[in-house]
Amino acid sequence: MRPLSQNRDFVILWVSQSISALGSAISSVSFVLLTLAITRSAAHAGAVASIAAITTVACRLPAGFLADRHDRRRVMIVADLGRALALSSVVIAGVFGQVTFVHIVAVAATEAALSSCFQPAETAALRFVVASEQVTQATARNESRTQLATLVGPALGGILLSAGRIVPFLVDAVSYLVSAVSLILIRRPLNNSRGDRAPHRSHGYVSAGLRWLWQEQFVRGAVLWFAGVTFVFQSIGLVCVLLAERHGAGPAATGLLFSITSTGGLVATYSRMPSPPFTDG
Length: 281
Hints:
By secondary structure, the chain is mainly α. It contains 10 helices and no strands. The protein has helices at 8-39, 42-69, 72-95, 101-129, 135-163, 167-185, 202-215, 217-246, 251-260, 263-272. The relative contact order is 0.18.
């Protein structure tokens, strides 16, 4: 068992997904700001965020089946390439001045669906990259990666949007390509030799998951609670964006508002970690 900082495959995975997470955080605020710039409608901006969130929830259980049933490396690479292609379509449409609300909705939903497929596969693959005794530590470092991206990404997204409407989406597309190439460089298999094949059909797998969720009172309550909290905080975030726009704030200042909300999550994540990322204490 080597320290995580000396684990080549984990370092590749951590760095590549840090870049990818930063790209996602950059484009997440840019979707809302771009929609506002095109439609001048708070309802349309809220619809984009809501559709992406609904798509994420709807795809999570089928995505878990996909991660267990198929080769995880392939699932993640296909998800990365699909997200890069979807965001590239916004870049191309922006170059010709043809970005529409329907196009933004379609791309946001596509990215949310493919992200839902990517995340369970990466989570399940982590135990094949690090020793079993290091899974908790590696998970904490991955969480710090996400929180750091959501701290820096929105502010950076606002700055990039000021430079050009398509720039944040171009950066995010490139980050997904970097992630796809990095996954190819990981040497270890990300599945068992038997492929972690689930014995259930997709429909039965999802139904069993829903039944279990409904029967477990604590888990059911926690899911409903966090869904409600997420809805409230996303609504507050949108209201802050609208108020900032009314008071003349530019994209950079608006992105900074989103970044500030991630400070608490980053502090909490580092407080749980036994040592800072890539140091061995």
